[in-house]
Amino acid sequence: MREIDETTANLFDHLDALRIIGEDRAAKIYIYSFLVPEDSDEYWFPDPRMASGNDPDMTLLCYGPELSEESVSLSYEYGIFPWFGYQDADMPRWHAPLDRFVLFPEEIHVSHSMRTLLNGRRYKVSFNKAFPDVIEACRTVDGRDKMDGAWLSNDIKEIYSRLSEKGKAGSVEVWDTHDGDRLVGGLYGIITDNGNFIGESMFSRVPSASKVALIALARKMAEESGNGRLIDLQIETPHLKSMGGRHIGYYDYLSIINPEKARMIDPEFILPFRLQKEDRQPTIEITDFTPKLLRIVAPRPRKYEE
């Protein structure tokens, strides 16, 4: 243990806003919030490597800040995203998995059965033609919005819809030409500045429609951008893994979606932050070298009184 240098201290300028607000005894982690006063001119996020004590199997990073176009846009630049059950959560929860499940478009695997389905030409695909319809279907199909833990709230729907109008979010639509061009599947997500796609949700009203959407997206990205881009699938499922999904680490992930930010990070750095169980007080431990911690901020829109 040694004296904290100025670079390290920057992350803890608002240490009084870092509060332990819960505990997961089974996982042996503390749940903490990183909240900045409402009169601050900035949104703040902790370094993503603080996520749940650096346990790669846990993804929760913090509670707060509030949802907005600015906070959502900022979060994705660092591989952070909002995910919480809106029916019972009193504040947004932000996640930052250190292990990422992704698909590289050029590695998409199309099974024989899917090739047969695609060759039948029953379904046609469009891009960014019906974003509001896709996100609404992702929210409500099969009664998702009534289920425990439902996370796609109207607030999230409105924010991502506004981002889509600015070209920062996109959708893939699958239409059934044998059923009056009915929308039967699709997906939506965030589009990064350098052309990666951060998948948020998908839906199917008929078997395999979401697979059709994913294959179309992968093929489009591979044709337009070549190698070196990714589709963030977020959660591993058997069918996504069978289509070519695989795991990469956080640093490799950030190097692809945001190379400029990745250059700020030492990939061998172990975050010098621990929560001591005995006194529940944050304790900072410094390694032998000086780490360059992230100070993740974005301007917060000012609220003017009439």
**Terminal Cα span:** 52 Å
Task: Give the SSE string.
Answer: HEEEEHEEEHEHHEEEHEHEHHEEE
Shape: globular
Which architecture of the largest domain per CATH? 3-Layer(aba) Sandwich
CATH superfamily of the largest domain: Leucyl/phenylalanyl-tRNA-protein transferase, C-terminal domain
From the alpha carbons, calculate the radius of gyration and give it in angstroms: 21 Å
Side by side, the strands of the main sheet go 8-9-10-11-12-7-13
Number of domains: 2
Class by SSE composition: alpha+beta
Please report the total strand number as a whole number.
Answer: 16
Mean model confidence by pLDDT: 77
Helix content: 25-40%
Largest sheet properties: 7 strands, mixed
Tally of DSSP helical segments: 9
Question: Can you identify the CATH class of the largest domain?
Answer: Alpha Beta
Strand content: 25-35%
Query: Spans of 5+ residues with little confidence (pLDDT < 50)?
Result: 1-36, 270-295, 302-306
Query: Do you know the CATH topology of the largest domain?
Result: Aminopeptidase
Record the SSE blueprint.
Elements: H1 6-11, E1 18-24, E2 29-34, E3 42-45, E4 60-63, H2 69-77, E5 81-82, E6 93-95, E7 99-103, H3 112-119, E8 123-127, H4 131-140, H5 154-165, E9 169-176, E10 182-191, E11 197-204, H6 209-225, E12 231-232, H7 238-242, E13 246-249, H8 250-257, H9 259-262, E14 273-275, E15 282-284, E16 296-299
Parallel strand pairs: 11-12
Antiparallel strand pairs: 1-2, 3-16, 4-6, 5-6, 7-12, 7-13, 8-9, 9-10, 10-11, 14-15
